[in-house]
Amino acid sequence: MIVLGIDPGYALMGWGVVEAEGSRMKLINYGCIETKAGVPMQNRLRTLQLGVRDLLNIYHPDDVAFEELFFARNVTTALMVGAARGAAIIAAAEYTQNLYEYTPMQIKQAITGYGKADKKQIQQMVKLLLKLDEIPKPDDAADAIACAITHCQAGVAKSQFLMK
Q: Is Hydrolase one of the keywords UniProt gives this record (predicted)?
């Protein structure tokens, strides 16, 4: 099974592609889709949508796993990230109905065994679980990889379908 994990973001949208065979996992690739400040919103959203579409066409994932949004402070940022997430979901939904989402706490629990783990602990476990030489950078990509790993470990039976 090949899983595309996505960490929604407006300036940087992290992504990671993980292949799982049973309990063995392998990192295929990762990175970020970047949009520049000062560019009109519709152009930034289109860049994100096309970027996700390109990833789907390159890696042909079986499933797409999104990190669910969690914001407590800045409403404007939450709205912008929500729009970016929507652009990614539209691109993914054109490709497959196998869309899933995981809360930050579910990802932390799956990766570290502790639902309140910090970013450094998650990044270190991503490195260990995938037998990498170094922690994937930037953080947005590492978060997307963690989301993909969570989906691989959860299995479809335990996953939350995004598309209902």
A: yes
